[in-house]
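note to self: dont lose this again. the chain is below, predicted strucutre after it. 270 aa total, dont forget to put it in the shared folder this time
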Amino acid sequence: MKHIARKRFGQHFLTDAAIIDAIVREIAPQPGQAMVEIGPGLAALTQPLVQRLGQLTVIELDRDLAQRLRAHRQLTVIEADVLKVDFTEVAKAHAAIGSIVNGSHRLRVVGNLPYNISTPILFHLLGFVNVIEDQHFMLQKEVVERMVARPATNDYGRLSVMLQWRYAMENVLFVPPQSFEPAPRVDSAVVRMVPRPSPAPVDPGRLSEIVRVAFSQRRKLLRHTLGRWLEQQRFAEAFDVQRRAEEVPVADYVALAQALAPTAGSFDKG
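---
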């Protein structure tokens, strides 16, 4: 029975064999690696992955698709909203069966993410970054461009800062709308995300607050936004507010967060 794409789940199924092959080459799965696929859908990417891995964990919210996937003996199916999945527990489950990545039990996470909730998924995974080896995601092209954007560009913003603090990222593949069924109204791209081995220690909540205030009026100089906010915080140290938010490098935002308060927490949940 043919599965009809469900708009409420943001379903667009990858059908382009050449693009699928290109994505698999970028992921480069190896036998025995602990891998999790988010939103496997009709298993277009799932099949070549599991053929190379031997075993694969998939997270699927759609009940009908999850039932189909359970017919594959090499798949472990988690039927759930990915935003509620504890990836630390998933990593522990893989460790229990001996899945190893480069001498560790960290996860490789892949998927064609639903574009309507892609940013919440990225921030959810940020909380489990210490149990993740790398991530390869297909996303809306403009989101990927924001993720990897450099300072002093129009795409550089909150998402750029929050993710670049914790990951080295690369836009590795362009994917046109006709590669999907049904075709989305936007271009897509695949991004590679590798957690930084020694990220600057910072309270992510504080960093997020600083970046939110800074980019709240990105066309204005920071003295009108972040400068006033820093005055309210009684921050006495030097910080150049004669710049626009998009002109401030990630390292400067991180340094400011460190200067405002000692590290009181982390996104890490593992």
